[in-house]
Amino acid sequence: MIATTPEPPYYAVIFTSLRSEVDAGYAEMAERMLALAAEQPGFLGVESAREGVGITVSYWRDPEAIRAWKANLEHREAQRLGHHQWYRHFRVRVARVEREYGI
User: Fold this and answer.
1) Whole-model pTM?
2) What CA–CA distance (Å, rounded) separates 103 from 100?
3) Which CATH number is 10-97's, of 3.30.70.100, 1.10.275.10, 3.30.70.270, 3.30.1380.20?
4) Where are the domains of the chain?
5) Which DSSP letter does residue 86 get?
6) Cis geometry, peptide bond prior to residue 9 (ω within 30 degrees of 0)
7) Can you tell me whether residue 42 is helix, strand or coil?
8) Among 58, 56, 62, which residue's Cα sits nearest to residue 12?
9) Has UniProt tagged this entry with the keyword Oxidoreductase (predicted)?
10) What pLDDT, in 10s, does the model give residues 33-51?
11) How confident is the model at residue 84 (pLDDT cuts 50, 70, 90)?
């Protein structure tokens, strides 16, 4: 599903990853993080795909909303588990969306 976002500017957090062999608890945590993110002030939407490399893009109103999400205690625990169990490699990029178009 493609996220419905407001008129720019807004922000995108792009999370790319390569999974480890560990699956225990991953699907449940991913589902919980999507639900929790959706409850956060400033959250605008999310898009995700995985075929080899996983890419999740979450959209946010402003940098403050992104910082608050990063600092969320439950999200921090998911990050810790991800670093130690679920990901072999990951990268987070934050970008300001200046323009968008589509059909």
Assistant:
1) 0.93
2) 11
3) 3.30.70.100
4) 10-97
5) I
6) yes
7) coil
8) 58
9) yes
10) 999 999 999 999 999 999 9
11) very high
